[in-house]
Amino acid sequence: MPILTPLAWFLLLCVPTACAMAGGPPPAVAHELAPSGRLRVAINLGNPVLAQQAPGSAEPRGVSADLARELARRLGLPIDFHCHDGAGKVVDAARAGAWDLAFLAIDPVRADVISYSHPYVVIEGAYLVPASSPLRTIEDVDQAGVRIAVGRGSAYDLHLTRTLKQAQRVEAASSAEALEVFLRDQLEAAAGVRQPLAEFAKTHPGVRLLPGRFMSIRQAIAVPKGREACLPYLNAFIEELKASGFVAKALTASGQDAGILAPPAPPE
To answer: Which DSSP symbol is given to 122?
Structure first.
């Protein structure tokens, strides 16, 4: 168990989930989360379900950006967005101390540098294959001779690293580039988040999406290791915004299916 500072103990004891939203956040939360006085937020544009580039603007849009802006508003903090094209690059930036808050999938491999809130959405990892492929099910993919394009460091890549027994991963710098590698090198499959793979298949008649999923991907707010004292407040924040409809509305406003909303977290 990590050794907590007096400030961390204050936050853990004085911000219980049931009442963290009542009366606004304690000032200590803003200081612990953003010690520079500005909330530096990393956004992964490589997952279009959660974030997109606003047309004609450098500002991101989507559910992740909406959650970040609402949190900054409640904490009374100015916000700085740092956008990346892949989750692996967001994690690398965490190791460099480049952000205070990010939106990432929960994965144990990242636990050395990142701690997570409750999830706010749950998405699926799926496979894309050539239209003529003999692969028909998720289970068919993990066999000798099958090469799978992946975005390096993504949640689905980390999962496949642990679970594949025979198929070979072929890494690309991002999920978008993985699809380019899949087509260019005529690979047997591409892994990714279901929604962008389905959109890709609509404009590429030579490919098809396999039914089912190989994993569920829980997306959460991430903070750098050592700032776990902020998690009670962030958990309460997430649960309130899920229950109020904020998260569902943000998903719908950015063209996403509100059905991916994460269920309420069990009582702690």
So the answer is: E
